[in-house]
Design a protein that fits this description.
Layout: H1 6-9, E1 16-17, H2 20-23, E2 31-32, H3 36-43, H4 53-57, H5 64-72, H6 76-84, H7 90-96, H8 100-103, H9 116-129, E3 145-149, H10 153-164, E4 168-172, H11 181-184, H12 194-205, E5 209-211, H13 222-228, E6 231-234, E7 254-256, H14 257-268, E8 285-289, H15 293-305, E9 309-313, H16 340-343, E10 347-349, E11 352-360, E12 363-376, E13 382-386, E14 392-395, E15 398-401, H17 413-417, E16 440-442, H18 445-448, H19 453-472
Parallel strand pairs: 3-4, 3-6, 4-5, 6-16, 7-15, 8-9, 8-15, 9-10
Antiparallel strand pairs: 1-2, 11-12, 12-13, 12-14
Helix pairs in contact: 3-5, 3-9, 5-6, 5-9, 6-9, 7-9, 10-19, 14-15
């Protein structure tokens, strides 16, 4: 390492964000990009720890100590090259990844861990700013034509890798723009869409063809797809939302999180939405059910739309502020996460079960809730019990269901191809990511289940490795 005592001299610099009073007035990115000098200082905190558990914790195996050292020394182009060796889209993970690597950082045992996520973002943005990133076309084409269905992080990383191997790539997307959940499910205050457009233009110049507004299985026959391509990778995500089927669910003003986020994101880009179709929180009492990241994103949107108040409720108990014995280092811990959206004024409630929705004239007006407690049974399993006499109501004009997703859509492609499903409803493949249909592979959330963007990229890269090997007999693409 450039400075083996850097971690003793430099303290962790927390991520910087725009002031709350400023950022809630727009949808621009809440985070502020760190300057080069501070990034080099923070990179110096990466210690010569011998066994880099950060690398072990990273689903794509980023060479974290190595590119930290290179950026600390000012060797930015080399740092960028090493970062790009394992990560197709560092500008996305540097903004959205929950940084499992940081929780596995050796320095985090008795000090604050290295700011891996911000360091990664500094490297890739420095590379863009200084012209390191240019279209790199394959030197030869294999003559093989491959279709990737879905343009989320799994589909894009798969297409990117296979294009590097010289295959002719076509990405088919049912929405009108490329990006999948990155574009329509992630608010701009976390990921502005010019970031996606910047990368997509490079991929296009490298030879990847993007066809949008085409729903394979409906607009494009599955049989035709199989005839025209030598291999197919299905990466259509995990879009079937988990519902809350209780009394009053049919009331107006209750929406799924993804519908709410998509509606808001399209409005931000200037796309017109009919007044009766637009989900607006302005001057409304908003309740978000679900305490995860998607729920937090909905909280942030509600603030920017001018909600009169925002409450986020969660069925599970409030997580601890620090590691519990159940999650020892270097495991990713279950701890309380406070996002930028929460800092903007939302009230959070834990251990809350919603029993029914109460309406007036067909519209949601209240939630009837009860507090719950969790106890371990004789087998050590957690059992939920309602706390006697704890019933209460929450007034609401708009309710957002952010309860996660069940599995991928089973109609359309999955049904047409006769694909097998696992016990969770995800597409089943062999160890080579291939379904029971020869030449048809699957990656991302539809294969793994709802997960993180970094896992989607990892899945896409692995699928690309096996697709290349299937077509060519061997491959140099990394797993």
């Amino acid at each position: 390492m450039g400075d083996i005592r850097g971690f003793l001299k430099v303290k962790r610099q927390a991520a910087e964000y725009r002031p709350v009073c400023e950022r809630v007035k727009d949808y621009r990115e809440a985070a502020v990009l760190r300057n080069t000098e501070d990034s080099q200082q923070q990179a110096s905190r990466c210690m010569d720890c011998g066994t880099p558990f950060c690398h072990w914790a990273c689903p794509i195996g980023n060479y974290i100590p190595e590119w930290n050292d290179l950026s600390f020394r000012g060797r930015w182009q080399e740092a960028f090259q090493l970062l790009s060796a394992t990560n197709n889209f560092p500008e996305i993970t540097g903004r959205l990844c929950p940084a499992q690597c940081e929780f596995a950082c050796t320095l985090g045992i008795n000090d604050d861990p290295v700011t891996v996520m911000e360091n990664e973002l500094s490297i890739i943005e420095y590379a863009f700013k200084h012209g390191f990133i240019k279209p790199n076309l394959p030197k030869r084409r294999t003559g093989k034509r491959i279709a990737v269905i879905g343009s989320g992080p799994a589909g894009l990383s798969c297409a990117n890798q296979l294009n590097k191997a010289g295959h002719s790539m076509v990405v088919l997307e049912k929405d009108d723009k490329v990006g999948g959940i990155l574009r329509f499910g992630i608010p701009d205050f976390k990921l502005e869409k010019w970031v996606l457009d910047r990368r997509t233009k490079i991929l296009e110049k490298e030879g990847i063809e993007f066809i949008t507004s085409i729903n394979v299985g409906q607009d494009y026959a599955t049989t035709k797809l199989q005839k025209e391509f030598d291999a197919i990778c299905l990466a259509i995500g995990c879009r079937l939302p988990r519902d809350l089927k209780i009394k009053g669910r049919s009331l107006k003003g209750i929406h799924f999180a993804m519908d709410y986020l998509t509606c808001a994101n399209k409005r931000v880009t200037g796309e017109r939405t009919a007044a009766d179709k637009f989900i607006d929180a302005k001057d409304k009492r908003v309740v978000v059910i679900g305490g995860g990241d998607t729920g937090a994103d909905c909280v942030g949107i509600a603030h920017r739309q001018g909600a009169s108040c925002v409450i986020q409720i969660e069925l599970l108990p409030q997580p601890p502020d620090c590691r519990s014995p159940d999650y020892p280092w270097p495991k990713y811990p279950l701890i309380l996460k406070t996002s930028t959206s929460h800092e903007e004024g939302a009230e959070r409630k834990w251990s809350i079960l919603t029993k029914k929705f109460i309406g007036e004239n067909g519209w949601i007006k209240k939630l009837y809730c009860v507090k719950v407690e969790f106890e371990k049974d004789s087998g050590g399993c957690q059992v939920m019990k309602e706390a006697a006499g704890s019933e209460f109501e929450i007034e609401a004009d708009l309710v957002i269901l952010a309860l996660g997703f069940l599995h991928t859509e089973h109609s359309g492609l999955v049904k047409d191809l006769g694909l097998e499903l696992d016990s969770k409803g995800n597409v089943k493949t062999d160890e080579n990511y291939m379904t029971k249909v020869p030449g048809v592979f699957s990656a991302g959330d539809m294969h793994r289940g709802q997960s993180l963007v970094v896992w989607a990229i990892s899945e896409g890269r692995k699928a690309a490795h096996y697709i290349d090997k299937y077509l060519m007999g061997e491959t140099y693409l990394p797993r």
